[in-house]
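pinging the channel bc i need a second pair of eyes. not urgent but kinda urgent?? the chain im working w is below, pasted from the shared doc
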Amino acid sequence: MVLIVPSILSADFARLAEEIRRVEQAGATMLHLDVMDGHFVPNITIGPPVVECIRRATRMTLDVHLMISDPDRYIPAFVEAGADQISVHQEACLHLDRTLRSIRSRGLAAGVVLNPATPVAMLDDVLELVDFVLVMSVNPGFGGQQFIPNALRKIRALDERRRRLGLAFKLEIDGGVNEENLAEVVRAGCDWIVMGASVFGSPDPAGTLARMQEIAREATSVRI
């Protein structure tokens, strides 16, 4: 089943609990939390205290995406704050194998993220360790950017690898997905589609989420 995963990066933080409640009532089961440090990416967003507050406001799976330098230093704090799964950037981890094992040893699902210019082959030696792979379809740091089409090639390549190797990791995509390209993303093999501006930037986030979920369901019958 393909999941539409709302990203709070585009939500109204003055009404965050209300925004979260609206998409949860519309059927969302996972929430994407972008953590940025102003160093690894050119923006600063949230930290463990906000994640802890969000944890109290929802029962959805909290998908915490660490766009930060030295993620190993902060993983325990996000685990304590209530994250259900944590993804780290391949580009930010000196010892990626160790970092992924550290996340999983704490009982969380572990994901690895690829920036647009990072080749899929960089993950060949850790695919058996990951629970999911997140492909960035924009350069990380800001919401509302235009989709980078090469991300579809990466999704197809990763989908081919997991089928050939008999693995079960999920494929996630983040950045620039909207109503026009959503079906193509699903048909490429993606399981989780992060959508921020397309959902929270619409006049009716709940209605938009429901429409996106329907598009995804219709697209699952065809793979390209």
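so Residues 44 and 200 are 19 Å apart (CA to CA). and The chain has a mean pLDDT of 95. — does that match what u expected or am i reading it wrong
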